[in-house]
Structure formats: C-alpha cells, structure tokens
C-alpha cells in the first residue's frame, strides 16, 4: 500500500529576486520562505530544496538503520544523523554531494555488525535510493 505525502510552493517573481513559500501540507507543520539567495548564498532565516532534502535524508537514514538493527536483534539507544547537501552552481545548478554523519549508541553491537548495518542503511534507505544520481553520497559513522 502506498502512502502519499504532499507539500507545495507558491513562487512570485523571477529566479534571482523572487520569493516563494513552501508549505508542508500533509503534516500541517507550517510554511517556510524560500529564495534563490537562500539557496545559493546564505540562508538568512529561509530554507531551500537542499535543506529539505538534507532533513528527509537524515530522517530516512535513521529510520532505515533502526529497522536494520531491529532485524539483527539490536535496539539503538540513540541515533544522531546529520545530512549535508552541497548545491553547486559553478557549472549549472546541481546537487554535487551529500555527506551523512552518524553518532550512534547501540548496546551489544560489534564494530563489524555496526559497519555492515550502517552501510546497508545508507544503500537501502528510500531517500538514498531516490538520490542515486548524486555523484557522491558518503557516510561517516561513529559508535559511541
């Protein structure tokens, strides 16, 4: 069974000076301003598609890893995942890299099981799969 989630953006003006408002429709958590400057330069209190992708990737990776751990008989005390998405405008606009970093507390897991589980989550989380065209997706995972 498929579940559908939705968001929308209303944009006014041209790319360089225009403004938009992105609304999270399914959750109703709010509307957030977007601009080209916030995307390509400094955020200044606004979001960007890349920040939204980073949030989605961090959440998806954490969920995928928690499921892989459960199937292997482990429960994480804490998974702290950060995603950094690089937006490169030097040769056409594109996402050039994503860096995932994880700090994890997982009682009883061996370093080998940890490495295998974290890599499986990186390769298998639905957002990673959807972003397969990104030239570089890396993972730095630390067991604490």
Automatic annotation (TrEMBL):
A Gene Ontology molecular function term of the record: peroxidase activity
Coiled coil regions in record: none
InterPro entries registered for this protein in UniProt: KH_dom-like_a/b, OsmC/Ohr_fam, OsmC/Ohrsf, OsmC_Ohr_Peroxiredoxin, Peroxiredoxin_OsmC
GO biological process, alphabetically ordered: response to oxidative stress
NCBIfam families (UniProt xref): osmo_induc_OsmC
Name this polypeptide is given: Osmotically inducible protein OsmC
Organism, as annotated: Paeniglutamicibacter cryotolerans
């Amino acid at each position: 069974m498929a579940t559908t989630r939705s968001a929308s953006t209303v944009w006014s003006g041209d790319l360089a000076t225009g403004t938009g408002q992105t609304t999270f429709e399914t959750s109703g958590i709010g509307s957030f301003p977007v601009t080209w400057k916030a995307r390509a330069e400094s955020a200044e209190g606004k979001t960007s598609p890349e920040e939204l992708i980073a949030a989605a990737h961090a959440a998806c990776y954490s969920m995928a890893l928690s499921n892989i751990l459960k199937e292997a008989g482990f429960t994480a005390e804490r998974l702290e995942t950060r995603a950094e998405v690089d937006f490169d405008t030097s040769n056409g606009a594109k996402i050039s890299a994503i860096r995932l970093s994880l700090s994890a507390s997982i009682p009883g897991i061996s370093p080998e099981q940890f490495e295998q589980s974290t890599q499986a989550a990186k390769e298998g989380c639905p957002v990673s799969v959807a972003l397969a065209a990104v030239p570089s997706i890396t993972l730095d995972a630390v067991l604490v």
